[in-house]
């Protein structure tokens, strides 16, 4: 015996329009944060190697980048795809109050053949 229960009011979501999984979202945020931190390391190196006017710009970049990296990595999470349209199953024909039997015209009693009668 099957233990499946059919729910008539349950909405079915199409898989092709589902939201991306949490693991995909987390992976994209990690990659974005890693790129921002690699830019920060480049700013530290360039702050040591460049002359004075450029040095301060790279120092400010190295100090400010961690804040922006965290904000931008977490801001991507709030961007969502539109919700999927639920699948609406077609309606099933219902059985009427009194079931009727439809007899085709060629199977009824004919004039050539007498109808069976009980005696």
Which regions have little confidence, pLDDT < 50, spanning 5+ residues?
none
Q: Judging from the principal axes of the Cα atoms, what is the shape?
A: rod-shaped
Radius of gyration over alpha carbons? 36 Å
How much helix is in the residues? 40-55%
Strand percentage lies at under 5%
Euclidean distance between termini CA atoms: 48 Å
Q: State the assembly state of the protein chains.
A: single chain
Helix segment tally: 2
Largest β sheet strand count, sense and barrel closure: 2 strands, antiparallel
Total strand count, please? 2
Q: Mean pLDDT, rounded to whole units? A: 75
Which class do the helix and strand fractions yield? Answer: mainly alpha
Biggest sheet: strand arrangement: 1-2
Biased composition (Basic and acidic residues): 108-119
Pfam families: DUF3099
Keywords: Membrane, Transmembrane, Transmembrane helix
Transmembrane segments: 30-50, 56-75
Model description:
The protein is mainly alpha-helical. The protein is built from 2 helices and 2 strands; from the N terminus they run βααβ. Helix 1 runs antiparallel to helix 2. The longest helix is centred in the N-terminal third of the chain and has 28 residues.
Task: Give the structure's gist in a few sentences.
The protein is mostly helical and 119 residues long. The chain contains 2 helices and 2 strands.
């Amino acid at each position: 015996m099957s233990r499946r229960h059919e729910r008539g009011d349950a909405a079915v979501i199409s898989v092709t329009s589902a939201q991306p999984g949490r693991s995909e979202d987390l992976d994209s945020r990690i990659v974005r944060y890693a790129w921002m931190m690699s830019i920060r390391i480049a700013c530290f190196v360039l702050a040591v190697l460049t002359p004075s006017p450029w040095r301060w710009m790279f120092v400010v970049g190295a100090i400010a980048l961690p804040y922006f990296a965290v904000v931008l990595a977490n801001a991507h999470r709030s961007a969502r795809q539109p919700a999927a349209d639920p699948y609406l199953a077609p309606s099933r024909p219902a059985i009427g109050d009194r079931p009727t039997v439809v007899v085709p015209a060629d199977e009824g009693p004919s004039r050539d053949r007498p109808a069976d009668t009980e005696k």
